[in-house]
From TrEMBL:
<feature type="domain" description="Nudix hydrolase">
    <location>
        <begin position="6"/>
        <end position="137"/>
    </location>
</feature>
<dbReference type="InterPro" id="IPR015797">
    <property type="entry name" value="NUDIX_hydrolase-like_dom_sf"/>
</dbReference>
<dbReference type="InterPro" id="IPR000086">
    <property type="entry name" value="NUDIX_hydrolase_dom"/>
</dbReference>
<keyword id="KW-0460">Magnesium</keyword>
<dbReference type="GO" id="GO:0008828">
    <property type="term" value="F:dATP diphosphatase activity"/>
</dbReference>
<dbReference type="Pfam" id="PF00293">
    <property type="entry name" value="NUDIX"/>
</dbReference>
<dbReference type="GO" id="GO:0005737">
    <property type="term" value="C:cytoplasm"/>
</dbReference>
<keyword id="KW-0539">Nucleus</keyword>
<dbReference type="InterPro" id="IPR003563">
    <property type="entry name" value="8ODP"/>
</dbReference>
<comment type="function">
    <text>Oxidized purine nucleoside triphosphate hydrolase which is a prominent sanitizer of the oxidized nucleotide pool. Catalyzes the hydrolysis of 2-oxo-dATP (2-hydroxy-dATP) into 2-oxo-dAMP. Also has a significant hydrolase activity toward 2-oxo-ATP, 8-oxo-dGTP and 8-oxo-dATP. Through the hydrolysis of oxidized purine nucleoside triphosphates, prevents their incorporation into DNA and the subsequent transversions A:T to C:G and G:C to T:A. Also catalyzes the hydrolysis of methylated purine nucleoside triphosphate preventing their integration into DNA.</text>
</comment>
<dbReference type="GO" id="GO:0042262">
    <property type="term" value="P:DNA protection"/>
</dbReference>
<keyword id="KW-0378">Hydrolase</keyword>
<dbReference type="GO" id="GO:0008413">
    <property type="term" value="F:8-oxo-7,8-dihydroguanosine triphosphate pyrophosphatase activity"/>
</dbReference>
<keyword id="KW-0479">Metal-binding</keyword>
<comment type="subunit">
    <text>Monomer.</text>
</comment>
<dbReference type="GO" id="GO:0005634">
    <property type="term" value="C:nucleus"/>
</dbReference>
<dbReference type="InterPro" id="IPR020084">
    <property type="entry name" value="NUDIX_hydrolase_CS"/>
</dbReference>
Length: 159
């Protein structure tokens, strides 16, 4: 019943340091998801591919330039009372140039891949992050209350 809803496209990318088993997260300093840790990303613009949007947002928000992207999953978020669903394309990258820098939007910080700060992340993240660790691709759908915290329904599966 949600398939005919309008969707807005977003990207979310997690830079990995596989040798050290670390992932770079950003503390969001403003806008949607403020005061939460997340990967880097944002809205896909009309003129660009989803992958290009992911690389652009990574660079704008962290200073890193991805040399490759691994597609990991698609997340759909439905917020109570909001007629537009979010369709978020999730990537990881193990190859990038540059050094992470703090920007107006994000304060970057490395975390152990098995020690994610889930208490300071979106409520859906612990439900699909394990599939990233296992190298699995996934599709997830989450229905949030308008408190932006409570998930009333979810469908998450590897694909
Ligand atoms: P900007 O407002 O920065 O794009 N995003 C979510 N990420 C996770 N892990 N869980 C959610 O649960 C999210 N909702 C949105 C997508 C917003 C950024 O935040 C991500 C984008 O990378 C509801 O342009």
């Amino acid at each position: 019943e949600h398939l005919q809803m309008a969707h807005r496209l977003y990207t979310l990318i997690f830079p990995l340091d596989r040798q050290a088993n670390r992932v770079l997260l950003g503390m969001k300093k403003r806008g949607f998801g403020k005061n939460k840790y997340n990967g880097f990303g944002g809205k896909v613009e009309a003129h660009e591919t989803i992958a290009a949007g992911a690389m652009r947002e990574l660079h704008e928000e962290s200073g890193l330039s991805a040399r490759s992207l691994d597609k990991h999953g698609i997340l759909f978020f439905y917020f109570e009372g909001d007629s537009v669903a979010m369709e978020v394309h999730v990537y990881v990258t193990g190859e990038y140039a540059g050094r992470a820098v703090e920007t107006d939007e994000m304060r970057p910080e490395w975390f152990d891949m098995d020690g994610m700060p889930f208490e300071k992340m979106w409520a859906d993240d612990p439900e699909w992050w394990p599939m990233v660790l296992e190298g699995k691709r996934f599709v997830g759908r989450f229905w949030f209350k308008n408190d932006m915290v409570t998930i009333t329904r979810r469908e998450v599966a590897p694909v």
